[in-house]
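Form 7-S
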Amino acid sequence: MTENEISYKIRGAIFQVYNKLGPGLLESAYEATLKYELEKEGLNVQSQVALPLIYDEIKMDVGYRIDLLVENKVIIEIKSVENLTEVHHKQVITYLKISGKKLGILVNFNSTEIDKSIFRKVNGL
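Output:
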């Protein structure tokens, strides 16, 4: 399955979760329910995946964690904040670079229009 095919299923699952729960919950609630919806679609989903930082060829455990990793290809970063800021977008790009993954999705569930709160981020590798 390609990143684009996975992304399509992720977007559908985001809408499912949002339509059932609405905005205003903690990120952990959206993470758990989104993971459940994606697994119902037959996708392999890992949550809170440790992301080590390699600096000068030394592995440093600095506590970065990917919210969800789908099919070991697509990173999902979940937010439930009043407004996304530039740092949220940069976080996903940096996670993509550090992990070597091609596609990331940033979603803010604390929104009145979920379709305008889903952002695809691509790693230029």
